[in-house]
Write a structure and sequence with these properties.
single chain; mainly alpha; two-stranded antiparallel ribbon; globular
């Protein structure tokens, strides 16, 4: 891989890390589309490029989330009680989602994902989940299906699942906004690991993969990405801790709507 490619991957990894730390999303929403474009530019056909991009994105999102959680936990912004309620079913959903994505292009599911995201964006932006009297709660009847669907669609789209987990934590668990990014990142550690393992397993033995691939995980490209993410995920987590909660909610609502536009257009 040439030096300009390594530098480009480092820069994109830095941006993904910043988003991962700030929003608690893993960074896959940046890495997935970029890697798809990057791999197609290297001459890979679109279906192979998409699977490799998603697997690599999820692999990087796992480490991005680990980096982010380290900083958020030091700032006491991870609500560990919530993690098992969403992570267990999300792991199952993520692995199944990666299995489906390894066989299908998933365009219809992406459109469904886009519709769900725009609904969540409106609710988060206007603070639907933060009305007075909404106390913190954990109900497995809500969190188990939410975790499963979040993990499934996240793996299908090559993202960590934070675009689902953050709104779910606000709207259903009624977690304070300051703790959503750190808690979401903690859940993403488990979902991205399960999804990346799925892409690795289903990609073994696939012909025409570039050198440096482990199944559908492009490890050679992941190295400079993670190097950039290491520092900037810490910066993102710091910025999350110092900005007012209303700003964080508004930023995340706009962010979700931006992802919706990307998926549709």
């Amino acid at each position: 891989m040439i030096a300009s490619h390594l530098l480009l991957l480092f820069g994109v990894g830095s941006l993904a890390g910043l988003l991962a730390g700030f929003f608690g999303v893993g960074g896959g929403v940046i890495l997935g589309p970029f890697l798809l474009f990057f791999l197609q530019a290297q001459g890979l056909e679109v279906n192979l490029a998409a699977r490799l991009a998603f697997g690599t994105s999820l692999f990087c999102a796992f480490f991005n989330s680990v980096f982010s959680v380290y900083r958020h936990n030091r700032q006491r912004n991870v609500e560990w009680r919530v993690v098992p309620y969403l992570a267990v079913s999300a792991i199952v959903g993520a692995y199944l989602g990666s299995s489906v994505a390894s066989q299908l292009p998933g365009e219809i599911l992406k459109k469904i994902l886009a519709l769900v995201l725009v609904v969540l964006a409106v609710q988060v932006f206007f603070g639907v989940g933060e009305k007075a009297g909404k106390a913190f709660r954990l109900d497995w009847r809500q969190t188990v299906p939410i975790g499963f669907l979040a993990g499934f669609f996240a793996a299908m789209a090559g993202i960590g699942g934070g675009v689902f987990f953050v709104p779910a934590l606000i709207l259903f668990v009624h977690l304070p906004v300051k703790k959503t990014a750190g808690t979401s990142s903690a859940i993403i550690i488990f979902t991205t690991f399960a999804a990346a393992v799925g892409y690795f397993i289903h990609g073994l033995g696939t012909p025409n993969l570039p050198p440096g691939c482990l199944g559908y995980v492009y490890a050679l490209a992941a190295a400079p990405i993670l190097l950039g993410s290491l520092f900037f995920s810490q910066l993102g987590a710091y910025l999350n801790s110092v900005l007012p909660p209303k700003w964080l909610r508004a930023f995340f609502g706009v962010f979700l709507f931006g992802i919706f536009l990307k998926l549709v257009f």
